[in-house]
Amino acid sequence: MDERIQSILPPPVDPPTGVLDGLEEITAAMGTDLPRDYLDFMRIYGRGEIDGAIGIVTPAEIPQGLDYLRVLFAELVATTPGYSDIRLFPEEQGLIWWGAGPSRERWYWKVVGHPDTWGVVVEDPDARPVTWTQYQMTLTGYLSAMLSGELSDSISSEWASGPHDWEQLDF
Q1: Distance CA 121, CA 110 (A)
Q2: CATH number, domain at 99?
Q3: CB contact at 8 A, 147 and 164
Q4: What's the CA gap between 8 and 19, in Å, rounded?
Q5: What does the alpha-carbon distance between residue 17 and residue 31 come to, in Å, rounded to a whole number?
């Protein structure tokens, strides 16, 4: 886990419980493990939102989100430039969704190689054509860089000013 994240985004006072319940069954059904960096983040932060706006999903929410995105992307491929070359997991080099923002922006991992090496992909659905920005960094590395103003894509730059808060949400 990126060592900067806890100073940029203070973790909740009360540690989360139950956020990784059923993890073995979830990853077995998906056919892949999830990055350790993400699992460490979940153990410390749990289910919640950054600044009340950027939601980070739990492992249990990932399969449901992928099902929803498959339907959405099928529609978008037919109507919106920028989606025809995008693949969702389990397709080769497919994307796995891990977060969403208030303006329909979404964050993914690009599934290539071992889960601990997956990069982050940022979708800006309001750009025309839609833009996809890739970063070869972990989830917490990306969040640390985004929240500290080190990134310049259209989505990340919106979140550069702090301080930042984590709002833990119940299941």
Answers
A1: 6
A2: 3.40.1580
A3: yes
A4: 22
A5: 25
Can you give the residue range of the structural domain that contains 139? Answer: 5-153
For 134-144, how does the pLDDT look when each residue is reduced to its tens digit (9 = 90+)? 999 999 999 99
- DSSP H helix total and E strand total for the chain: 5, 7
Q: Give the pair of three-digit tokens for residue 153.
A: 């894509």
Answer yes or no: is 164 within a domain.
no
User: What single-letter DSSP state applies at residue 138?
Assistant: -
Per DSSP, what are the bridge partners of residue 50? Answer: 54, 166
Q: Which helix (H) or strand (E) holds 166?
A: strand 166-168
**What gap in Å lies between CA 109 and CA 120, rounded to an integer?**
5
Number of domains in the chain: 1
- Do 2 and 157 meet the contact criterion of CB atoms below 8 Å apart? no
Q: Where does 1-159 show beta strands of DSSP type E?
A: 48-50, 54-56, 95-100, 106-110, 119-124, 131-135
Answer whether residue 47 shows pLDDT above 80. Answer: yes
pLDDT tens digits for range 82-98: 888 889 999 999 999 99
**12 assigned to some structural domain:** yes
9 domain residue, yes or no:
yes
Q: Is residue 163 part of a domain?
A: no
pLDDT tens per residue across span 13-43:
998 999 999 999 999 999 999 999 999 999 9
Cβ atoms of residues 4 and 138 within 8 Å: no
